[in-house]
Amino acid sequence: MPRRVLIVAYFFPPLGGAGVQRTLKWARYLPSLGWHPTILTVRSRDYWMADASLADELGPNVTVVRTASLTGLSLLRRLAPGQAGRPGRPRRSTGILGRLRRAASWAFIPDSYVGWIPFARREGARILSAKRHDAILTTSSPDSAHLIGRALARRFHLPWIADFRDPWTRRMSFDPPTRWHARCHRRLERGVLHEAARITVTAEETRADFLNRDPDLDPAKIEVLTNGFDEADFTRWGDAQPRGSRMQILHAGQLNPERPAAPFLRGLRHLLDIDPAARAELRVRFLGPFYAGDAEAAERWGLSDVVSFEPALPHREVVGELLQSHLLLLMEQDSPRGGLILPGKIFEYLRSRRPILGLLPRGAAWNLITNLGAGRCCATEDAETVAQVLGDYVEAFRQGGPPPTGLSPETLHGFERGVLAQRLANVLEQLADRAGPRRAGG
């Protein structure tokens, strides 16, 4: 008889972006592995990326329950209409959002989604009272999801997995306004890490960081479950190849203040100063939400004829854009925190077998690209090296095109979403078997 898991996830279709893919693919594949998911998510669409087509991937054995929520973004839309960004309007104002994010860091702990907690706790309790579930899984960000799961696990005596798509106090955007705020976050983070029955993270570097910062944490409870790619998303494109008379460089996914376009644009500007002929041979596309400062930097450095910023596309179309590009761009902030990040899109980049240009700190993403021979990496702020590496790819294009990476299906197999879902199902089975029969909730 199938078992049931309650998954608490704020980011879920019709919301779009990379943050929904992990939960969506689990929901797609878990039913065939003996687990029927109930997704507890939001009814409102307080996010600036949407992709309604993703809901087509859900089968009949997935239950989606939506609640109301109060968030910082909903407040922003009331105070500053047009500044928050909406689907199809991908440009946001860095200044006003920065000020509002700062204000939110004073007022909301653990995050600006804290207003979702009472709605989700109440609905989660209703779900668990009405039908037997065997486990709870919460996924962050937002970290508020873990506080919802912790409360429900305590009340209903269920095993609970806390999944960290991003670190908490080591997240790129983590910037508490006072030491008191920092202590509150660390106390909450530590409570989640110790109380959850199992912790899942996306990179070995994140696991090591948690253990280094908390020697009392049991290493056996932290499981590395990377993000991945879904082969079905790629097979529909057949043998799609790079297109156009210019070398296509693509960055897929949103930019943000911690991961701006400027470092790459400086390297590109340096290349064009050295090799003016490359201007007519290059096309750089940033596909997805961006900030005003990104476009302004391109204009300031005279790159508007080479660089374009375009709205997000449905995920299935993004996959096609990857396959039809010559070079894929991956960027992270040059900092110890940036070294912990292994972004979900890197696995779709790998599956596309197009070379990756990484502007990265040494760490999770750098190691993966280098170890697999999937492209070349350089320090985020090293414009001269970026220009040199770009120049090498331009020269390869002149000679017939940068060759595919040649990554084999065997090398990529462990990153396939169905394989990763099987690993999650194994963890769920272990926890459910250990917990035994469920006791009644309060």
Number of helices, where a helix is a run of at least 4 consecutive DSSP H or I residues: 16
**Structural class determined from secondary elements:** alpha/beta
Low-confidence stretches: none
Mean pLDDT: 91
The CATH class of the largest domain is identified as Alpha Beta
Judging by the overall fold, what is the CATH architecture of the largest domain? 3-Layer(aba) Sandwich
Spatially, the strands of the biggest sheet line up as 3-2-1-5-6-7-8
Shape: globular
Number of strands: 15
Which strand-content bin applies to the residues? Answer: 15-25%
Helix content: 40-55%
Taking all Cα atoms into account, the compactness measure Rg is 22 Å
Query: What oligomeric arrangement do these chains adopt?
Result: single chain
Q: Whole-Å distance between the termini? A: 26 Å
CATH superfamily of the largest domain: Glycogen Phosphorylase B
Largest sheet: 7 strands, parallel
Number of domains: 2
The name of the CATH topology of the largest domain is: Rossmann fold
Key traits:
alpha/beta; 16% strand; 442 residues; 40% helix; globular; seven-stranded parallel β-sheet; 2 domains; Rossmann fold; six-stranded parallel β-sheet
